[in-house]
Amino acid sequence: xxxxxxxxxxxxxxxxxxxxxxxxxxxxxxxxxxxxxxxxxxxxxxxxxxxxxxxxxxxxxxxxxxxxxxxxxxxxxxxxxxxxxxxxxxxxxxxxxxxxxxxxxxxxxxxxxxxxxxxxxxxxxxxxxxxxxxxxxxxxxxxxxxxxxxxxxxxxxxxxxxxxxxxxxxxxxxxxxxxxxxxxxxxxxxxxxxxxxxxxxxxxxxxxxxxxxxxxxxxxxxxxxxxxxxxxxxxxxxxxxxxxxxxxxxxxxxxxxxxxxx
Length: 262
Fold this sequence. Notes:
Helices cover 42% and strands 15% of the residues. It has 11 helices and 7 strands. A 7-stranded mixed β-sheet has the order 3-4-2-5-1-6-7, with helices on both faces. It is globular and about 55 Å long.
């Protein structure tokens, strides 16, 4: 029986390519024969905007499912809210998620709401990827409580270390208090050029800081205008620019994750 691995892509700050990485990783895993569900758990709905042309057509979002779960109402059939786009399934986001964030703060057992939604779906997929907002709010805590693994995305610029240690400490707290199976799969370095001195310096700094506690994925995502263009058109790199280094990096990242299961 298939039991999906739930992976959160998280970050302490925006602009690190987290949503783009979730989107492209999903299609890279799909190309390797895996059944994938992506949960857009960010109220900015960046991934959802890649999947649907008009946000108004979304009748049921992850925010609605969260509200139903908190109010102990019956959930709709997955066929009513899961969107399939080019072989990958998505649960869309909407502004409702912002309301959920506020309501979760007042709800007893709030950190387990997303778990209840995703657990019945585990048997249908190999991987469930969750894209989170770039902060440690109640939604991110919910995502970490539901996950098996977390990938921390970091922009490879001089501020790459900002928030990494705080995020890692938060994951440790969630692991000890809420979700004992959770662990950090690794740090994904984005927007980098391995040929530059800055890339090497910051990569070494990250490695020294965590001193074997966390691995840095071999796959580093380089900067390319094609990434932005593909997002604008709502098309994964595998289709829009399959020969780019960024596309190959995401394919290699997918292989690294699958190798972990072996």
